[in-house]
Amino acid sequence: MAEFMYEIKVPKDRIAVLIGKKGEVKKQIEETTKTKIKIDSSEGDVSVSGEDALGLYTTKEVIDAIGRGFNPEFAMFLLKQDYSFEKINLKDYVGESKKDQERVRGRVIGAEGKSRKLIEELTETHISVYGKTVGIIGEAENAAMAKEAIINLLNGSQHGNVYKWLEKKRKDKKRRTMTGEQDEAFKQEIKEEEKEE
């Protein structure tokens, strides 16, 4: 059987988190995904190899999430079938300016973390604001909602309007779940996003 490989760059200050105490995190990821992880701590280079392409891709996502500031416990949710990892690069919205990146990071986090916490609660996701990125882990539909809400904040929408929109989306989702309805428009939107990737 053919062996596949991914090369991933992880910030040096996140390598210790990826390895874990006595190598426990790295070992858990390897055992769960049936992959082999090699880490160059001095450069932050991580290579992942294995025979199962899907397991390998999932491992890459878990490592990327840890590299983007997530606790390994939350990153491991990506091993569940319905969970996804969304990543937003702040430079795509404000350019290279460190000052502007800091400003929009503050909009996403909010005073005392209020904005981030509220978006997490309303979308049932986990959000990490780290460096020049915002990472989101959650069930696919919820992660997509959180991503859209954060993009709206990055584009200057008022916090109150974003929260109202999320509350409406949450109510719609609960209604669909209770009545068994399927949101065909949302399914189509997800398919289109997958094609773009």
Shape field: globular
Order of strands in the sheet with most strands: 1-3-2
CATH superfamily of the largest domain: K Homology domain, type 1
Averaged pLDDT, please?
90
State the separation between the terminal residues, measured CA to CA.
27 Å
SSE pattern: EHHEEHHEHHHEEHHH
Radius of gyration: 18 Å
The number of E-state strands comes to 6
Strand content: 15-25%
The tally of domains stands at: 2
**What structural category characterises the helix and strand content?**
alpha+beta
Describe the structure.
- The chain has helices at 12-19, 24-33, 53-67, 72-75, 91-94, 98-109, 114-123, 140-154, 159-179, 184-196; strands at 4-9, 36-40, 45-50, 83-89, 126-130, 133-139.
- The chain is of the alpha+beta class.
- The chain folds into 2 domains: 4-78, K Homology domain, type 1 (Ribosomal Protein S8, Chain: A, domain 1); 83-196, K Homology domain, type 1 (Ribosomal Protein S8, Chain: A, domain 1).
- The strands form 2 sheets. The chain has a 3-stranded antiparallel beta sheet with strand order 1-3-2, with helices on one face.
- Helix 7 (114-123) packs antiparallel against helix 8 and helix 8 (140-154) runs antiparallel to helix 9 (159-179).
- It is globular.
- The two termini are 27 Å apart.
- The mean pLDDT is 90.
